[in-house]
Amino acid sequence: MNPLAEAWRLLTSGDLHLWEIVLRSLYISGTALGLATLVGLPIGAAIGLSRFRLRGPTVALVNTSLALPPVVVGLAVYLLLSRSGPLGGLEMLYSPGAMILAQTAIAAPYVAAISLAAASEVPPDLQLQARALGASRLEAVLVTLRESRASLLAAVAAGFGAIISEVGAVMIVGGNILGETRVMTTAIVLETRRGNFGLAIALGAILLTIALAINLLLVSIGRADLRRPWSS
User: Which domain, by its residues, includes 151?
Assistant: First the structure.
């Protein structure tokens, strides 16, 4: 059968194997993105809004983390979780948990670096004005961050893009086990090697559709927030 025709058949027939892989991918990448946002956004915002002696080298270090190859992250997580590693007793290797840990480590630098840049562009006087109007320190920080909300959403989108399409790290720590750790990217590699191009094309189409949907959602959230009154 023609690969495109086979891909269409799989997409429209509700193939259980296909959608099991998709749902597992969303669970792993979605969880990793949430954790990466919880870690990366506060770090990036804190550095961007602060002024301290070693700020320059710290910013350079955060930006350099963007160049960290995913396979190196996968190797580091593998060594961490292997039997001889410090966390080997958790027996997480070749499990969704190990994949979530690796993807969190990949996405967090993206969220942190873009959040840092966004927070740095907000005028420093804004916090002072908010404090002068009676806002607490936390409220002043939240007001400042709201001014860069569109960029912060872009940070989340960048983090998601970095992990939903990643294959090296999850292959190293997850092993591409059928029914347990196989996700869209690793399945695409496997099925392409097997010559099952229809399934590979179907998974690729779903992956791109999900990425587009997530970005459209984040853009919509940003636009809706921009239309709200400043005082809300």
Answer: 23-183
